[in-house]
Every structure is written in C-alpha cells, then in structure tokens.
Design a protein that fits this description.
- The complex is a heterodimer.
- Chain A is α/β, with parallel strands linked by helices.
- The chains are: A alpha/beta, B mainly alpha.
- The interface between A and B is medium-sized, with 25 and 20 residues.
Chain lengths: 581, 382
Amino acid sequence: MEEKRIGVYVCWCGTNIAKMVDVEAVAEEIGRLPNVVVSKNYKYMCSDPGQELIIKDIKEHNLNRVVVSACSPRIHELTFRKALENAGLNPYMFEMANIREQVSWVHTDRTEATKKARSLIVGAVTRVSHHEALDKRTVEINPATLVIGGGVSGMTAALEIADAGNKVYLVEKSDHLGGHTANIDLTFPHLQSAAQLLQPRIKRILNHPNIQVFFGTTIDEIFGYIGNFEAEIEQNGKKTELQFGNVVVATGLKPFNPEVIDVYGYGKLPNVITSVEFEQMLKSGKIQTRDGQEPKHIAIIHCVGSRHPDYHPYCSRTCCMIALKFANQLRSAIPDAQIFDIYADMRAFGKDCEEFYKDSASRNILFLNFDQQKGLPRIGMPQISKAPPGNGFEMIIEMDERLSGEKIEVPADLVILMVGMEAQEDAKTVAHAVGVSMCGNDFFIERHPKLDPVATTTDGVYIAGSCQGPKDITDAVSQARAAAARILASIAAKTVEVEVTTAVVNEDMCCGCQTCIKVCPYKAIHFDEEKKVSVVNEILCKGCGTCGSACPTGAIRSRHFTDMQILSQIKGIMSMEVTEI
Amino acid sequence: MSTRVDPNFKNTLMGYGRGDWNECFHCGNCTAICPLSENGFLFPRKGLRAIQMGLKDKLAGYVDPWLCYYCGECSETCPRDANPGEMMMTLRRYLTSVYDWTGLSGRLYRSFAAHLTVVFFLFAAIITSFLIFADFSIPANAEGIVEINKFAPHGLIASLDHILLGTLSFFLLTNILNMFIKVIIKDRSVRIPFSMYFIHVWEAIFHFLTQARQLKCEGKRTYWFSHWFLMSSYVIMFILIIFFLDWFQTDQIHPVWHPQRWLGYYVTAGLIWGTIYFMIGRYKKNKEMFKFSHHSDWIFIILLFLIAFTGILIHIFRLNGMALATYVSYTLHLAVEVPMVVTFVAFSKWSHLAYRPLGLYFANLKKAALRKQYNMQVAPAV
C-alpha cells in the first residue's frame, strides 16, 4: 500500500474564520499528525493563489491526499476537487472541514471555537486517509424525447425539440391538441385570439416529420434512467414500445368545480356559470342567459376556489386578468350593460397587465371588493340568490363591500364565476409513472423553486406549464422552452456524467431480503431473481446511503461514504489529543 | 339593510363637474396625504367610493365635502389621475342641489344655458324697470353734485333689497334646514345632546369670520388671503346695502377719512383683488383647484367683478358730477348685482358661505357626540 501523504490547508477566509479560530496554531498542531506532510494556513484558499498553493505542494511534496478546512463544501468542494484534478490527483482524494459555517460564524468563544475547528480538521484528516480513487462515469443520451400532454406547454416543447432535428413522441390524453388554450376565445392583456396562436402550431405538429402524436393515450409507467428511458403505450388496442432519452411532463390543469361553494348556487341557479363556460359563450359569439335573453346586469366573481382555506389556499394567477378580459368583451358586446367585477384582490402582475387594469377601469366597470379571508367559513363572501320577480333582474348578490364598508345588493342576470386552477385528477398516477414529486396541492415540484424551475429530482425528467402550478400562456411557454433548451443541451452533449458516489452490493454478503429495494427513494435497486441478490442501477443511484444503513448484513457499501471512512472521521473528531491517533 | 348599488348614478353627477370616477382603485393615497382628513371624517376616498357605487342616500348626508378646501394635493398624488379634489368640488355643487328643495339649483348647475338665460333675463328686467320708472334726465344740482337718491331713492331701493333678502333668506334657510335633516337627523349612528348645539356654535362663527382651517392646507396662504379679502369685502358690502343703505348711498360727498368712503374703498379693493386673482387662476389653471372650472364658477366671479367695476364707475362719475353716466352705471350696477344674488345665494356657489361653516359645525357636533357616546359606552366596562 502506498504511503499516505496528506496536505492540510487552513483558510482564514479573510477575517471570517481567522477572527474566531486561531488558524495558525491549528495548522501548526495539525502538522504534527501522522501522515500529514504539509500543514499551512492561508488568507483565501479559494483564490487562485490559494489553489496554486495546493497544486504546487502536491507536485513538490508528492501529496496524495488533501484536506482543506474552510467554508461549507457546498460552496467550494468542487473548486478544490478541480484543483486536485489539475495537479494530477483523483478529485475524490479530498476532504473538506467546514470551520466557517459550523465554527467561526456560530461561536463566540475563540478558545472553544479553535478546539472545535481542530477536532473537525482531525476528523477530516483521519477520513481522507481512507478515501479511494473513484472514476467518473458517463451514459449516452437517446436523442428522442417523450412529451406528455398536448396543451400549449407540451406543444411548444415538442416543436422546439423536433425543430432541432430530434424525434419527439407527443402523448395526449384527449383526442385533440391545444389543451385549455383551445377553449379560450381571446387572451389577455392584448385581446389576441387564442385560436390564432394555436392553430398554426397544431397544424405544424400534426405534419411534423419528427413528431409522432398519440391521441387518447396515457403513460402508465416509465422505466430506465436519463438518456435511456423506455415506456409501453397503448393506442387503439395497439401496443407500442417507445425509447427516449428525456421526458417533458406537461399534463396541465383542471378547472375548479364551484358546486362545492353553496353560496354561489352553481348548479342550482341556471345563470350562474363558470369562466370556462363563459369562454365557450364568447367563442359562440352569443352572450345570453339560459332563456335566450341578453343580460343587462352581469357580475364577475373572482377567486372562486382560490385563496380560500376551505378550497385552495393558493392564487390561480390568471383569473384576475381573464375577468378583466371578460369585462372588456362584455362592455364591447353590450354597451349599456351594468358590469360588476367582484374581486378579493386585483392581481395584475404581468407585463402590460396593470395598464390593462387601468384601461378596463375607464370602461365603466364597477369594481366591488370583498374580504375573502374574513369571517370564515362563509360570511363576507358574496351570496347569490334569486331576485323577487318584477325587479328587472334575475338574481341578487349580497355582499359586504370592503372599500365602502357597506352591506350592498348587486343586481345580476348573469354571474360568471372565475374558477381557479387545480392539479389534474390523475396527477398522482403521472407523478408515480415518471418519478416526480408533488407538493401539498398535487402540483409537481421542480428541483429548485428559483434556480431550477424546470427540472425535477429525477434526471432527464422536466416539467412545464400548469402541472407545476397555475400559469398563464406566457409563463407556460417560457417554461416549455426552457425545458426544451435543457433537453437539447443534453442531446447535443451526447453523453451525461452521472454520480459516482453510488452504492454497490457485495453479492457474497447479500441475503436477498430486499429491504434496500423498499427503502430506495430513486427506484435504483432491483432484484436479480437468478442470483437472488439486489443489484444497484448505478445510473439511477444518487448515493443517498439509505440502502447502506438499512442493509441488515452490511452487504451494501456506499462509495465515498464507507463505514471505514465515516467511523475514522468520528474517531478523529472525538480524539482529545493529536497523539491519540 | 343593504343598499342597492347603482353604477349609473355617477352619470347624474357629470353636470356638476368633471372627473373620471371610474379611474379610482382605492389605494387611499388621497386620504393619506390630505392635511384636513381626520379620524371620523376621512376623505376624499370614501366620497369617491360612494359615487362609484351610487350610494345616493349616503351622499345626501355626506358632510365631508364642506370640510375640504381643495388644496389639490390629493389630485397631485393620485396614481390613476382620478382627480379626487375635483370630485369633492363636484360633490359640493351636487350637495348644494340636494339641499335645494326647489330643484332650481340642479337646473342652474347642470345647464350653462339655463343659468345664463336667467342672468340675462334678470339683467334685462332691471334695465327695463329703470328705463321705465327712473328719470335719467335729472341733472346734477347747482353745486355740481349728482343727487343719486333723486334718481333711485335709497328708501325704495332698500325696500326692494329687503324683499329680495326675505325671499332669498327663506330659500337659503329652508335649504339649510334640509341640510340639517340630511346630515344630522337622518344619521342614526349619532345622537347629539341639545347643549352641544350651543357649545359648538362658536366654532362655526369663528370659522366663518377667519376661515383659518384653510391655512392647514399647504401653500394656500395667498389663496387664503385672496379668498378672505373677497369674502370679507362681500360681507361688508352686503351689510352696507341691506342695513345701512341710507347711510351708504348718500348724495353728500364725504371727506376721504369718513368711514363711508374707506369702507367703500375696502369693499371695492377686496372685490377687485379677489375676482382678478380667481379669474387669472382659473384662466391659467395654475393651481390644482383652478384646473377644472364649472360655468357657475365663471359666472359668479365675472358678475362679482362687474359689480365692483360698475361700483367704481358710479363713484368716479358721481365725484365728477357726471349725472347721466352715474345713472347708467348705477343701473348696470344693480343689473349685475340682482342676477348674481338671485341665482347664487340660495341656489349656487354663493351658498357655500353658509354651508361651509355649517358643515364644519355639524361635523364637530357629530365628532363630539360620538366621543361622548363612545365614552359612555366604554365607561361602565372599565
């Protein structure tokens, strides 16, 4: 066995660490540890001269292991691994001791902090002694992509990927493309026709040589891993086997059913309709009540099913502007109608949306405000009832108007309920099939809410559109294009690097109990029926270590987190004197 | 009891002023910036809300417009250019017509033509009466003094004045009673103890005499002075011609230091200064409050100016013994004075002389009563 030659570098991080930890004394003391060849302290290890120092020492002192005690490995572990690689060492022969976030920033006693820093570094040194060289691994990417959902998001992603010359399988549950956008008359805030946005794209998809559309089809299960997925789909009784390298989940939304809100009388009062039904009315070109009359008093009620603890706590984001669009279309269609916009909060956050709100306000629309949150469960919400005959209108909406403080009656012949968006009923099935997680509201969760809003925790599976959360067309298209860009990048790279710190099964020790298969969150372990042992799919494995700790026989070993490495680190940290080791 | 909303109500206000009542989205910046708005009387946002929703009954008893002096900060601050300041001005005009049970006020406000017609009719009527009943050929006496009381005897003129005063007072007082009913009696939320009416009456008088509340509005010192100078001049003139006409309208020419002379000069100076100040402002639109001028504002200020101007002419011609010119000026003087008084005192802009101090008085009564009610309710619990 080769001689272990360890270099230790204690970082000052300017004064961040140095003011609370006696870095010089620590470095000096660590230098006396066995196998530690060099032990230095430096102002900024992460700086170029700091990295150069490591590279130079590796070459000069023939170091084969390095410890840097500085900030969190989340910040600079990759930086230093790269430095090791540049010096010709395997990047995994490195360990980092966090003496900033875990020591200097959280302690106030310099002596104690210095002692703790020393312990952590000793632990790192004892751990790094047992590190093994690990090799990078890559897999090839199948350039075909599966897009689930033929709404505006799915269509956008499909076209983007197919236009770049790659095969796309577009799977749509219904018998037509366009999703909810196909049911819309005009879009906000510019009142452009939705059909004009959609029709050319639908045509292009149906005629695209690279896109294969499967109507009336759902995905039951996807097997495989990034670059090499496969699924079996059934269409008209015919089974097809698809192979693809990436997945875009764009399964969309479902409109809220307002029947559950009894005060609105939906389903009982014939002229209380949903925004979805009103869109159809607009598309048909005839705005009328059930008995064919032109409505003269029209009320639009916002936040139906949204922002209410009894229904959905979240905002559906699009209803406010759709309501304004309705008000505008109504004003143009019936110039003498009384139009009431009954809202809880007007959310006009998009580009040109505040302007749209202002313009709409000048078109003689009476905005009435109610308190959605006050007086639960129902008080404060508008109550709709049938008006006594002879009033000249059909229904009365009673409400506490917040901006005036008055209890008021609003006459109405037609009431439009702005229903919110909710997750698809089969969201759970889809989530299971493609291996994405869901939040409490059944929307799919992105990998990072800010920095990675299109990827999921499963590599190669991306989400776009309202399956991730309520979205307007603009945002849905942006997200779809972002997902397409990510996929095209991986197709262009041809291969993808996968995690090497994975679990491995010692087949001789495995008793075949399959505990590991049950606990694996990434479905990365399967059972070899022939050998009666568990086998880890190293491409799916994220190296979380759950299987390793659950394995009753100790047959599973997590690379880079072996028992030996962890135990020696604990021993190092617990040792009171350097000489104990 | 819930109120039926009426989005068409705001259209009925259009004749009373200008402004985009739809624009407001109730951020409340106007109320926040207003130096006069205070707890219990938070304006102007609430007024705008009542207009938008068509809360007619609430507006009828709404006293807040009389507490506003239109500094215009609200309109400057408004992010939606809804002109809340002009909204309050419009409401003052509208309320004047609401208090007026004859309905004449509304007609004068809503129609420029109607107002102008009434003014011209009265103007012509006065001139015709003088042409028929007065003798324009009476020369100056031997000492060269124009004997105006021979042309128009002060006794006769004073009697006509008193008839006019009686009639207009009847209308104004009944309108004030109407205001009292709408603002105080119909408001069930407050019960005002009888003694309070006496305690707070001094505030109304003090305000009427000083208009000091206006000074709380930032940058209104020149405006306050001009308005106060005009108002005090007008009030003095009013007292002189109604109660002391025999002392004021004399054929004898008093020396310059005589009170009859310098009171006359004060009145003339105040009217000229004030009317020119307002005419320039309204023409240039150099202040927020001058940006939107209603026809009632223009007719009022022009008639006031003409009253002062013809007054000066009478004075000059009389001092120079020019009899006919004096009589013509005198005739014109009355021919502009009468339509101004008839159309404005009880039915239009002039009435704010009464409604403003009364509005403040009523508001203070309510405030005091609410304070008392609040204490009485709270006291036992403590």
